[in-house]
Amino acid sequence: MEIPLLIVSLIFLFFSSALSSSVVTYLPGFQGSLPFYLETGYVEVDQDHGGEFFYYFIESENNPAEDPLLLWLTGGPRCSAFSGLVFEIGPLKFVTAEYNGSLPSLVYRLYSWTKVANIIFLDSPSGSGFSYWTKEEENDSSWVQQVDKFLVQWFVGHPQFISNPLYIAGDSYAGKIVPMVAKRILDGIDEGKEPLLNLQGYIIGNPATGGKVDKNSKISYAHSMGIISDDFFEMIQKSCSGQDYRTPTTSQCQMYLDSFNNCYAHTLAYYWANSNIVRRALNIRKGTIKEWVRCNRHLPYTIELKSNIKYHLSLLQRGYRALVYSGDHDLVVPFSGTKQWIKSLNSSIVEDWRSWHVGGQVAGYTMTYSNNLTFATVKGAGHTAAEYKPQECLAMFTRWISGATL
Question: Is 328 marked active-site?
Answer without folding.
Answer: no
